[in-house]
Write a structure and sequence with these properties.
The chain is of the alpha+beta class and about 475 residues long. It has 12 helices and 10 strands. Helix content is about 55%, strand content about 10%.
């Protein structure tokens, strides 16, 4: 699967739909119309009502034109969407010019178009709209008609107050734009991570579909193979009673029958129900699970040490405290455990310790390395999609001679998700001083990990191994 990069929108990408911008603009039109009418007729303030209504009408007709020209789900191009938002900024600036400039409390609405752009448009478009909004606000400090007020008084604020309003508008614009852009980026990253997880699940579903096709093929091929076996058996019987038949024909018939029987045996394995499968394949002890997960990540420079033993835990009637847990062979658990071991090997200097312990209540696996450990600033977020500690450059242990790219953070996210789906709790920590390195602990309730049908009395001895 190719890497997914959604850190920011590209120069030709937009997430703003026509229906969204039209609805937002209708809210603006209705708000402006209601405010102008309330100020003029409700409060009795004198203002250039005709010019104000003309500007509001132009905005309304732009909305009507957008609705006619484009379907509701049309995604506007960045340039066109920026032009529409720029038109809103200019219209708002014109209305504020007619009604007091920055003395009008509604000048705060300069923030709205820039915030919408930060959530849906590329960065350069948002910067352009921000510059336009700041330029309009700066112009309105000195150039505007008087604020509508009770006659004969003329309302005028000192320039220092106007400068404060301008500063508040610019600061609010920058803060909301950055905050909105950050939230939008995280939402895109989460969507991409979920898409990656769905891709993994889709591949698993295709494997299940292949299993179904294999079973169907086994069912369909069973009859013709039985017929072939029967015919070859009859031919062999006739060949045995015929003295003139060449010996190699009899040998070919025997070979044909043996191969037909072999095919039938293979098909019987494909159609075997889960209850008839080999119990050694369906289930495996905890130590074998760890060894199977760690085997692909053997390294010339980093030693993987595996230690498994019962812990001094609580005892109960359901399980024998010393019996090693025997769990179901679950590919998701093996993948998740292997991914964590792989990360530990990549960051370790010389050794990775995989310690397993169990009692009557829980089963736990701790994976510790002697590397640099987790950085404090990412400890709380590691495990979220696109959060990674793997920088671009050489592997720390030198197991691969080539360079490796910076990690996307999806591997650990998917591994953690698969382990938690199996009932495990994954916790992260650094090794206590003076030791260095990271520890990842995976803990299952024993009832969630163990297979009760595999319960065998007896105490398992201490298990130690190294890879």
């Amino acid at each position: 699967m190719p890497p997914i990069e959604l850190n920011s929108l590209g120069p030709h990408e937009s997430r703003l739909r026509m229906q969204t911008i039209v609805r937002l603009r209708w809210f603006g039109v209705l708000g402006q119309l209601g405010t102008v009418l309330a100020v003029h007729f409700g409060l009795g303030f004198d203002l250039p009502l005709g010019w104000c209504l003309l500007l509001i009408a132009l905005s309304a007709w732009v909305n009507v034109g957008l609705r006619v020209l484009f379907p509701a789900r049309h995604r506007l191009s960045p340039a066109f969407a920026s032009a529409v938002l720029a038109c809103d900024i200019v219209t708002l600036a014109a209305l504020l010019y007619l009604t007091g400039g920055l003395e009008n409390p509604f000048s705060l609405l300069f923030i709205a178009p820039v915030t919408v752009s930060a959530a849906t448009l590329p960065v350069r478009n948002t910067i352009g709209l921000g510059i336009l909004a700041i330029a309009a606000a700066t112009t309105l400090i000195a150039y505007h008609l008087p604020l509508p007020w009770y006659p004969p008084a003329v309302f005028a604020l000192p320039w220092i107050y106007k400068a404060g309003v301008w500063t508040a508008i610019v600061a609010g614009m920058l803060f909301l734009a950055l905050y909105t852009a950050r939230l939008s980026r995280e939402a895109r990253l989460m969507t991409a991570a979920l898409a990656a997880s769905e891709l993994v699940l889709a591949r698993e579903q295709r494997l299940h579909a292949l299993d179904g096709l294999a079973a169907a093929a086994a069912h369909e091929l069973g009859t013709p193979l039985a017929t072939i076996a029967l015919v070859t058996k009859e031919l062999e019987r006739e060949a045995a009673g015929t003295s003139g038949m060449a010996p190699h024909i009899a040998e070919d018939l025997a070979l044909l029958r043996s191969q037909a029987e072999r095919c039938r045996e293979i098909l019987r394995k494909l159609t075997r129900s889960p209850g008839e499968q080999d119990p050694h394949h369906v289930s495996l002890p905890l130590t074998q699970l760890i060894q199977e997960a760690a085997q692909p990540y053997k390294s010339r420079t980093v030693q993987i040490e595996i230690l498994a033993q019962p812990s001094a835990g609580r005892t109960g009637p359901e399980f024998a405290a010393g019996r090693e847990p025997i769990g179901e062979r679950r590919p998701g658990v093996i993948f998740g455990l292997g991914n964590i071991i792989e990360n530990a090997v990549d960051f370790a200097r010389k050794r990775v310790e995989v310690s397993a312990a169990w009692d009557d209540t829980e089963v736990s696996i701790a994976i510790a390395d002697d590397g640099p450990g987790f950085s404090p600033e990412i400890m709380d977020t590691l495990g979220d999609p696109y959060i990674t500690t793997r920088p671009a450059g050489f592997r720390s242990n030198g197991s691969d001679t080539g360079r490796v790219g910076a990690g996307l953070g999806l591997g650990f996210f998917i591994a953690k998700t698969l382990l938690e789906r199996s009932g495990a709790v994954v916790t992260l920590a650094n090794r206590p001083e003076p030791a260095t390195g990271a520890i990842v602990k995976i803990t299952w309730p024993r009832s969630a990990f163990d297979l009760p049908a595999q319960a065998v009395p007896g105490t398992a001895p201490l298990v130690a191994a190294s890879l």
